[in-house]
Design brief:
Residues 228-308 form the Cdc6 C-terminal domain. Belongs to the CDC6/cdc18 family. The protein is mainly alpha-helical. The chain has three domains: 7-114, P-loop containing nucleotide triphosphate hydrolases (Rossmann fold, 3-Layer(aba) Sandwich), CATH 3.40.50.300; 129-209; 214-319, Orthogonal Bundle (Arc Repressor Mutant, subunit A), CATH 1.10.10.10. It is built from 14 helices and six strands. It has a three-stranded parallel beta sheet, with helices on one face. Helix 6 (150-163) packs parallel to helix 8 (198-208) and helix 10 (222-236) crosses helix 11.
Protein backbone atom coordinates (compact mmCIF):
# COMPACT_ATOMS: atom_id res chain seq x y z
CA UNK A 1 0.00 0.00 0.00
CA UNK A 2 3.06 2.24 -0.26
CA UNK A 3 3.47 2.47 3.54
CA UNK A 4 6.84 2.06 5.23
CA UNK A 5 7.49 -1.04 7.29
CA UNK A 6 7.39 0.03 10.96
CA UNK A 7 10.26 -0.40 13.37
CA UNK A 8 9.64 -2.92 16.11
CA UNK A 9 10.46 -3.22 19.79
CA UNK A 10 9.90 -6.24 22.04
CA UNK A 11 9.84 -5.73 25.81
CA UNK A 12 9.51 -8.45 28.46
CA UNK A 13 8.24 -6.70 31.59
CA UNK A 14 9.87 -9.26 33.91
CA UNK A 15 13.24 -7.78 32.88
CA UNK A 16 12.33 -4.23 33.93
CA UNK A 17 13.94 -2.95 37.12
CA UNK A 18 11.06 -0.52 37.57
CA UNK A 19 7.70 -0.50 35.79
CA UNK A 20 8.24 3.07 34.51
CA UNK A 21 11.48 1.95 32.78
CA UNK A 22 9.32 0.83 29.87
CA UNK A 23 9.01 4.46 28.68
CA UNK A 24 12.81 4.82 28.61
CA UNK A 25 13.08 1.74 26.38
CA UNK A 26 10.50 3.13 23.95
CA UNK A 27 12.25 6.50 23.92
CA UNK A 28 15.62 4.86 23.17
CA UNK A 29 14.10 3.15 20.14
CA UNK A 30 13.18 6.54 18.70
CA UNK A 31 16.87 7.49 19.15
CA UNK A 32 16.09 10.66 21.08
CA UNK A 33 18.81 12.06 23.29
CA UNK A 34 17.48 12.58 26.76
CA UNK A 35 19.81 15.52 27.53
CA UNK A 36 18.11 17.65 24.94
CA UNK A 37 14.84 17.58 26.88
CA UNK A 38 16.21 18.83 30.19
CA UNK A 39 14.58 17.42 33.29
CA UNK A 40 11.64 15.78 31.55
CA UNK A 41 11.05 12.09 32.30
CA UNK A 42 11.02 9.58 29.40
CA UNK A 43 7.20 9.49 29.58
CA UNK A 44 6.96 13.30 29.40
CA UNK A 45 9.40 13.37 26.47
CA UNK A 46 7.27 10.84 24.58
CA UNK A 47 4.09 12.78 25.34
CA UNK A 48 5.69 16.00 24.08
CA UNK A 49 7.08 14.26 20.98
CA UNK A 50 3.66 12.86 20.01
CA UNK A 51 1.85 16.13 20.63
CA UNK A 52 3.54 18.15 17.87
CA UNK A 53 3.83 17.27 14.20
CA UNK A 54 7.34 18.76 13.96
CA UNK A 55 8.78 16.57 16.72
CA UNK A 56 6.92 13.35 15.85
CA UNK A 57 9.11 10.61 14.25
CA UNK A 58 8.41 9.70 10.64
CA UNK A 59 8.35 5.92 11.04
CA UNK A 60 5.81 3.98 13.09
CA UNK A 61 6.99 1.81 15.97
CA UNK A 62 5.35 -1.54 16.77
CA UNK A 63 5.79 -2.16 20.52
CA UNK A 64 5.17 -5.73 21.71
CA UNK A 65 4.93 -5.87 25.51
CA UNK A 66 5.11 -9.38 26.98
CA UNK A 67 4.11 -10.24 30.58
CA UNK A 68 2.11 -7.01 30.76
CA UNK A 69 0.66 -8.13 34.11
CA UNK A 70 3.93 -6.97 35.71
CA UNK A 71 3.00 -3.36 34.91
CA UNK A 72 -0.02 -3.50 37.23
CA UNK A 73 0.72 -1.09 40.11
CA UNK A 74 -1.49 0.18 42.90
CA UNK A 75 -2.47 3.36 41.00
CA UNK A 76 -2.22 1.63 37.56
CA UNK A 77 -0.60 4.82 36.25
CA UNK A 78 2.09 3.10 34.15
CA UNK A 79 -0.41 0.88 32.33
CA UNK A 80 -2.79 3.78 31.79
CA UNK A 81 -0.07 6.10 30.45
CA UNK A 82 1.27 3.38 28.17
CA UNK A 83 -2.10 2.86 26.49
CA UNK A 84 -2.74 6.61 26.31
CA UNK A 85 0.49 7.16 24.34
CA UNK A 86 -1.22 5.56 21.35
CA UNK A 87 -4.05 8.13 21.41
CA UNK A 88 -1.95 11.31 21.15
CA UNK A 89 -2.51 13.25 17.92
CA UNK A 90 0.86 12.52 16.31
CA UNK A 91 1.59 9.25 18.06
CA UNK A 92 3.79 6.79 16.19
CA UNK A 93 3.15 3.82 18.51
CA UNK A 94 1.24 0.64 17.78
CA UNK A 95 0.88 -1.31 21.04
CA UNK A 96 0.43 -5.06 21.39
CA UNK A 97 0.28 -6.37 24.95
CA UNK A 98 0.47 -10.01 26.04
CA UNK A 99 -0.89 -10.85 29.49
CA UNK A 100 -2.05 -13.83 31.54
CA UNK A 101 -5.04 -11.89 32.89
CA UNK A 102 -7.61 -12.12 30.12
CA UNK A 103 -9.63 -9.30 31.72
CA UNK A 104 -6.64 -6.99 32.24
CA UNK A 105 -8.11 -4.01 30.36
CA UNK A 106 -11.66 -4.29 31.81
CA UNK A 107 -10.50 -4.97 35.33
CA UNK A 108 -7.55 -2.65 35.76
CA UNK A 109 -8.21 0.06 33.19
CA UNK A 110 -11.99 0.64 33.11
CA UNK A 111 -11.55 4.31 32.09
CA UNK A 112 -9.97 3.43 28.75
CA UNK A 113 -13.34 2.87 27.11
CA UNK A 114 -14.63 6.33 28.06
CA UNK A 115 -11.38 7.80 26.66
CA UNK A 116 -11.93 5.98 23.36
CA UNK A 117 -8.83 3.90 24.02
CA UNK A 118 -10.22 0.46 24.81
CA UNK A 119 -7.90 -2.13 23.22
CA UNK A 120 -9.07 -4.95 21.01
CA UNK A 121 -8.80 -8.11 23.13
CA UNK A 122 -7.94 -11.44 21.52
CA UNK A 123 -8.27 -14.38 23.91
CA UNK A 124 -6.21 -17.48 23.19
CA UNK A 125 -7.80 -20.67 24.44
CA UNK A 126 -5.85 -23.25 26.42
CA UNK A 127 -4.20 -26.00 24.35
CA UNK A 128 -6.34 -29.04 23.58
CA UNK A 129 -5.23 -32.65 23.94
CA UNK A 130 -4.55 -32.97 20.19
CA UNK A 131 -2.61 -29.69 20.03
CA UNK A 132 -0.39 -30.67 22.97
CA UNK A 133 0.24 -34.10 21.46
CA UNK A 134 1.04 -32.60 18.03
CA UNK A 135 3.50 -30.05 19.45
CA UNK A 136 5.37 -32.70 21.45
CA UNK A 137 5.57 -35.04 18.45
CA UNK A 138 6.69 -32.18 16.18
CA UNK A 139 9.58 -31.38 18.54
CA UNK A 140 10.59 -35.04 18.64
CA UNK A 141 10.78 -35.31 14.83
CA UNK A 142 14.34 -33.92 14.84
CA UNK A 143 15.52 -37.09 16.63
CA UNK A 144 16.32 -40.25 14.70
CA UNK A 145 15.06 -42.54 17.44
CA UNK A 146 11.97 -42.98 19.63
CA UNK A 147 12.01 -41.37 23.07
CA UNK A 148 8.44 -41.91 24.27
CA UNK A 149 5.87 -44.63 23.86
CA UNK A 150 2.93 -43.12 21.92
CA UNK A 151 0.65 -44.01 24.83
CA UNK A 152 2.87 -42.01 27.23
CA UNK A 153 2.57 -38.86 25.08
CA UNK A 154 -1.19 -39.27 24.75
CA UNK A 155 -1.51 -39.74 28.53
CA UNK A 156 0.48 -36.55 29.16
CA UNK A 157 -1.57 -34.58 26.62
CA UNK A 158 -4.89 -35.75 28.08
CA UNK A 159 -3.90 -35.00 31.67
CA UNK A 160 -2.45 -31.53 31.00
CA UNK A 161 -5.32 -30.52 28.68
CA UNK A 162 -7.88 -31.54 31.31
CA UNK A 163 -6.06 -29.69 34.10
CA UNK A 164 -4.61 -26.45 32.69
CA UNK A 165 -3.96 -26.66 28.96
CA UNK A 166 -0.53 -25.12 29.66
CA UNK A 167 1.96 -26.21 26.98
CA UNK A 168 4.95 -25.29 29.14
CA UNK A 169 3.67 -27.62 31.84
CA UNK A 170 3.29 -30.44 29.31
CA UNK A 171 6.90 -29.99 28.14
CA UNK A 172 8.05 -29.87 31.77
CA UNK A 173 6.26 -33.15 32.51
CA UNK A 174 7.94 -34.78 29.49
CA UNK A 175 11.34 -33.54 30.68
CA UNK A 176 10.64 -34.95 34.16
CA UNK A 177 9.58 -38.31 32.67
CA UNK A 178 12.88 -38.52 30.75
CA UNK A 179 14.81 -37.79 33.97
CA UNK A 180 12.90 -40.55 35.79
CA UNK A 181 13.72 -42.94 32.93
CA UNK A 182 17.42 -41.97 33.07
CA UNK A 183 17.48 -42.38 36.84
CA UNK A 184 16.09 -45.90 36.43
CA UNK A 185 18.83 -46.74 33.93
CA UNK A 186 21.54 -45.62 36.36
CA UNK A 187 20.14 -47.83 39.11
CA UNK A 188 19.72 -50.81 36.80
CA UNK A 189 22.34 -53.28 35.59
CA UNK A 190 20.64 -53.25 32.17
CA UNK A 191 22.07 -50.22 30.35
CA UNK A 192 20.44 -51.09 27.04
CA UNK A 193 18.27 -48.76 24.97
CA UNK A 194 14.71 -48.08 25.98
CA UNK A 195 11.93 -45.53 25.81
CA UNK A 196 9.94 -43.48 28.28
CA UNK A 197 6.91 -45.59 29.15
CA UNK A 198 3.41 -44.93 30.42
CA UNK A 199 4.63 -45.70 33.97
CA UNK A 200 7.44 -43.11 33.76
CA UNK A 201 4.95 -40.52 32.56
CA UNK A 202 2.50 -41.49 35.32
CA UNK A 203 5.15 -40.77 37.97
CA UNK A 204 6.08 -37.46 36.34
CA UNK A 205 2.44 -36.36 36.15
CA UNK A 206 1.91 -37.40 39.78
CA UNK A 207 4.65 -35.01 40.84
CA UNK A 208 3.05 -32.09 38.99
CA UNK A 209 -0.64 -32.69 39.76
CA UNK A 210 -0.51 -33.62 43.42
CA UNK A 211 -2.89 -32.49 46.19
CA UNK A 212 -1.74 -29.96 48.82
CA UNK A 213 -1.34 -32.63 51.51
CA UNK A 214 1.09 -34.49 49.25
CA UNK A 215 3.19 -31.35 48.81
CA UNK A 216 3.20 -30.89 52.57
CA UNK A 217 4.35 -34.48 53.16
CA UNK A 218 7.22 -33.97 50.73
CA UNK A 219 8.34 -30.90 52.71
CA UNK A 220 8.58 -32.77 56.04
CA UNK A 221 11.96 -33.75 57.56
CA UNK A 222 13.07 -37.28 56.59
CA UNK A 223 12.41 -38.93 59.97
CA UNK A 224 8.88 -37.51 60.13
CA UNK A 225 8.29 -38.89 56.63
CA UNK A 226 9.53 -42.28 57.86
CA UNK A 227 7.05 -42.13 60.76
CA UNK A 228 4.25 -41.63 58.22
CA UNK A 229 5.57 -44.65 56.29
CA UNK A 230 5.48 -46.65 59.54
CA UNK A 231 1.85 -45.59 60.06
CA UNK A 232 0.96 -46.57 56.48
CA UNK A 233 2.60 -49.96 57.01
CA UNK A 234 0.63 -50.44 60.23
CA UNK A 235 -2.80 -49.73 58.76
CA UNK A 236 -2.50 -50.57 55.05
CA UNK A 237 -3.31 -54.28 55.32
CA UNK A 238 -5.12 -54.25 58.64
CA UNK A 239 -8.64 -53.57 59.81
CA UNK A 240 -7.26 -51.75 62.85
CA UNK A 241 -8.03 -48.06 63.01
CA UNK A 242 -5.54 -47.29 65.78
CA UNK A 243 -2.22 -48.41 67.26
CA UNK A 244 -0.05 -47.35 70.19
CA UNK A 245 3.00 -45.11 70.20
CA UNK A 246 5.11 -48.10 71.30
CA UNK A 247 3.97 -50.28 68.38
CA UNK A 248 4.46 -47.43 65.95
CA UNK A 249 7.97 -46.95 67.30
CA UNK A 250 8.75 -50.63 66.56
CA UNK A 251 7.62 -50.20 62.95
CA UNK A 252 9.70 -47.02 62.65
CA UNK A 253 12.83 -48.74 64.06
CA UNK A 254 12.37 -51.62 61.58
CA UNK A 255 12.29 -49.12 58.71
CA UNK A 256 15.45 -47.42 60.02
CA UNK A 257 17.23 -50.76 60.33
CA UNK A 258 16.27 -51.81 56.82
CA UNK A 259 17.31 -48.50 55.23
CA UNK A 260 20.44 -48.17 57.42
CA UNK A 261 19.31 -44.80 58.81
CA UNK A 262 20.11 -44.27 62.53
CA UNK A 263 16.84 -44.18 64.52
CA UNK A 264 16.08 -41.40 67.01
CA UNK A 265 15.43 -42.20 70.69
CA UNK A 266 11.96 -42.72 72.15
CA UNK A 267 11.73 -39.18 73.57
CA UNK A 268 12.57 -37.57 70.22
CA UNK A 269 10.26 -40.03 68.45
CA UNK A 270 7.43 -38.99 70.76
CA UNK A 271 8.15 -35.32 70.04
CA UNK A 272 8.07 -35.98 66.28
CA UNK A 273 4.66 -37.62 66.64
CA UNK A 274 3.39 -34.62 68.61
CA UNK A 275 4.56 -32.32 65.78
CA UNK A 276 2.80 -34.52 63.20
CA UNK A 277 -0.31 -34.44 65.41
CA UNK A 278 -0.21 -30.63 65.58
CA UNK A 279 0.02 -30.53 61.78
CA UNK A 280 -3.02 -32.81 61.40
CA UNK A 281 -1.31 -35.92 60.02
CA UNK A 282 -2.16 -38.10 63.03
CA UNK A 283 -4.02 -37.92 66.34
CA UNK A 284 -2.44 -38.75 69.70
CA UNK A 285 -4.51 -39.95 72.66
CA UNK A 286 -3.72 -39.45 76.35
CA UNK A 287 -2.03 -41.98 78.63
CA UNK A 288 0.14 -41.94 81.75
CA UNK A 289 2.73 -43.99 79.87
CA UNK A 290 3.97 -42.52 76.59
CA UNK A 291 4.24 -45.89 74.82
CA UNK A 292 0.56 -46.63 75.46
CA UNK A 293 -0.75 -43.44 73.87
CA UNK A 294 -3.30 -44.20 71.15
CA UNK A 295 -2.33 -43.19 67.61
CA UNK A 296 -4.76 -42.79 64.70
CA UNK A 297 -4.00 -41.64 61.14
CA UNK A 298 -5.82 -38.46 60.08
CA UNK A 299 -4.93 -38.52 56.35
CA UNK A 300 -5.47 -41.12 53.66
CA UNK A 301 -2.83 -43.82 53.31
CA UNK A 302 -3.06 -43.23 49.55
CA UNK A 303 -1.73 -39.67 50.07
CA UNK A 304 1.38 -41.10 51.76
CA UNK A 305 2.02 -43.72 49.08
CA UNK A 306 1.27 -41.17 46.33
CA UNK A 307 3.73 -38.66 47.82
CA UNK A 308 6.58 -41.16 47.76
CA UNK A 309 5.79 -42.71 44.38
CA UNK A 310 8.98 -42.87 42.33
CA UNK A 311 11.29 -42.53 45.37
CA UNK A 312 13.24 -45.78 45.73
CA UNK A 313 14.17 -44.99 49.34
CA UNK A 314 10.61 -44.39 50.55
CA UNK A 315 9.13 -47.14 48.43
CA UNK A 316 11.51 -49.44 50.33
CA UNK A 317 10.27 -47.92 53.60
CA UNK A 318 6.70 -48.77 52.59
CA UNK A 319 7.64 -52.41 51.88
CA UNK A 320 8.47 -53.13 55.54
CA UNK A 321 6.56 -55.78 57.58
CA UNK A 322 3.32 -54.49 59.11
CA UNK A 323 2.95 -54.47 62.91
Amino acid sequence: MGMETPDDLSINCTNLGNTSDIFGKILEKFQVRKKASGKLSPLQQLQRMFSHKESAPRRMLLVVVDEMDYLITRDRAVLHDLFMLTTLQFSRCILIGIANAIDLADRFLPKLESLNCKPLVITFRAYSKDQISNIINHRLKVLEYDVFEPMAIEFCARKVAAATGDMRKALGVCRSAVEIFESGLQDSSDKGAGVVTFDHMDIALSKVFKPAVVNNILCLPQHQQMVLCALANTFQHSRKKATTLGELNKSYIEICRSTQVPAVGMLEFSNMCMILSDQGYLKLGQSKEDKLRRVTLQIDISDITFAFKGSRFFEKCLEQPKF
